[in-house]
Prior knowledge:
Chain A is of the alpha+beta class. In chain A, about 25% of the residues lie in helices and about 30% in strands.
Amino acid sequence: MATVQFTDATRVYPGADHPSVDKLNLDIGDGEFMVLVGPSGCGKSTSLRMLAGLEEVNAGSIHIGDRDVTDLPPKDRDIAMVFQNYALYPHMTVGDNMGFALKMAGVSKAERQQRVEEAAKLLGLDDFLNRKPKALSGGQRQRVAMGRAIVRSPQVFLMDEPLSNLDAKLRVSTRTQIAALQTRLGVTTVYVTHDQVEAMTMGDRVAVMKDGVLMQVDSPLALYDNPKNLFVAGFIGSPAMNLIEGVVSADGISVGDYVVPVPRETLAHAANEKNLVLGIRPENFDLGSGNEGIGIDVDVVEELGADAFIYGTLAGTPDIDKLTAQQIVGRISSRTPPHRGTTVRLNIDPEHVHVFSKATGNRLA
Amino acid sequence: MPRFLSAKTDTRLITLPWETPLAEWPEEMLVALPRGISRHVVRFVRVGKEVFAVKEVLEHLARHEYRLLRDLTRLDTPSVEAVGVVTDRFTPDGTVLDPILITRHLQFSLPYRSLFSRGVRQDTVNRLVDAMVVLLARLHLIGFLWGDVSLSNTLFRRDAGAFAAYLVDAETGELHDQLTNGQREHDLTIARTNLFGEFCDLEAGGLLDEALDPLVLVETIESRYRELWGELTGVEEFDGSEMHRIESRVRRLNALGFDVAELDITTDFAGSTIRIQPKVVDAGHHSRRLIRLTGLDTEENQARRLLNDLDYYRARTDQQNADESIVAHQWLTNRFEPVVNSVPAEMRAKLEPAELYHEVLEHRWFLSERAGNEVPVDQAARSYMDTVLSQLPDEKLNLSGMEAMGPLANPFDPSQGFVDDEVDKPYDPWETESDDDTPEEPATPYLDIAALRRAKG
């Protein structure tokens, strides 16, 4: 087991104007499950491949434990790409299907058997070891693939969008299985996905990337509750956080005819900006009464048991602009949600108002 | 209605039963060709006289693979031809079906399992390994990272006594401008692991000659690849007095079947040390020359063989000073075509024309040796068809090969394994438990933050 450390690690493709990964600094703890997430082209896969040795590191360094692996070939890094190989060989037993790479590496028969048995136990495949893989289910095949990586007992597991080629049902069950296994094995794991729900449910910590730059690395809840900038705020959470531009006033930020209360000390960080961006998660809205709250013209209501999502635009937006106007989403706990076509007031829980600089996109502390 | 993404759609494909899950397509449409194991549903479908491979796969993967295979074809790299992607599939009751990728079945191709099924000689294995190495190097030269190098993902065609390898599955592939050493090493590591597994599997099934050792085989692959890659791309430095080494490097590459399109030559200030490195090399040195001269599109070794015969014909007819293309035309009409056309219709599906011609030349050599004098080609061709060709199986659509491993549970889908005599299912705690609590995930795409707070506490 080992830590992983990226220090100013940079990858520039030949002929490219911008680095694909720009001075990445990331420390991954021993046994930690780190998820790299971001939209396509953000540099998450490239970062993983730099760690795997598939991409050159043009500047900076990468360490696994105390070893500088920056210039080592992939096979000397003691890492395993999980789910690289799904093929099951019909003439070999499940045990041999899991352990054949050890045979290639010259591991003794006794040790091979021991490692395969341990892995099979972890994976619930003990009773299958001496069977041919004739009729294994999709999930069992996934586990044999995991077993192939486990028996190698590498320092680090790497997984690059491992669920992207599975159907929805297998995706959910495999996700749970990977997370459970990782906890039991305690092997440092770096996992890449574009799916923030996957990232948030699986990772001990999540590193959010955009345009080759690390935006924030934190525990899933810290990312959700304290996004450092507008990108993380908008990327993490679904439905996404509402990001509404408003004008700074004495006691807060005014949106339409309503002033959202914001502590003065927060506003003091705004330097001389006249306009700031308010971040409000859908569940931090509540139905207001009278003139309290942001006015919303309701376009769609989606009921989900005790709650309802309401989708709308700021009150008073002319009909002709409604299609292009910013959509506001609120999650309301009410037995009698408003009807579409009505105008409602949405109150905001002052504890949960996020404020961002419009100029820099950064959170105002 | 299903939607077709295709460069030129074959209209006969439009009427296939796209609204039915592929696993349930009527058997009379299917062909039981031997093939590798796949994690998707794959079937071979006969449409008119042609056979297509159809694979049910998630949309982003289908589109990705379609584009990559088109790119590989455009870059003249041996791979199966992508025909199209079918999306928007629904059953009559409205259930959504996964899209389908359609590729054309490669005629006269042999999956490795059918080559191995009849017991295999060491030199055949070596030739397969060589074909695989050439394919991998060619893919790497154009910047293609395969990601799942294996015999299962490769098809072989006969090539004048050797084999030519074709890429079948590009699902995990990526096309880059240029590969890094790390990427090539990664592909090589995967190749080692997968091929080792495949050889061990053949060994476990009693299909590998006892003299062959899986470990030695994969080590051979690795060392041959490194040798070939070094020759194709390596830097060579020599003294200014050894200028002939430029010419010999080019000749060595030609002999390996590659043309040099760009050679980087640098000298030091005094001009005493020369440094050369091939920058762009293209495979198909001989096949390009043959196609230019005769219009025949063949594999590389077949081309080499046919070109040798053309040179021989030229010398025999004393036309060394005549225009090469005129002699080539004569050779085509007087030598090649009469042999190929003399094959009875019922035997034409046994071997490709170029391979057949190569075999006739081989046969003629044996006959001449035995007779002690040169046997004419037409006579050798007749003898070959009577004594050899009539005994060979059809290879245009190779249906043999799977039976050696026992009856398949489904003849159209080797991934389902063999007829299973073990009825009892072993205990699997993971699947037994998950049957009880099925509601694992709400159907909405929303992030359930409350559940996450509870879980992460």
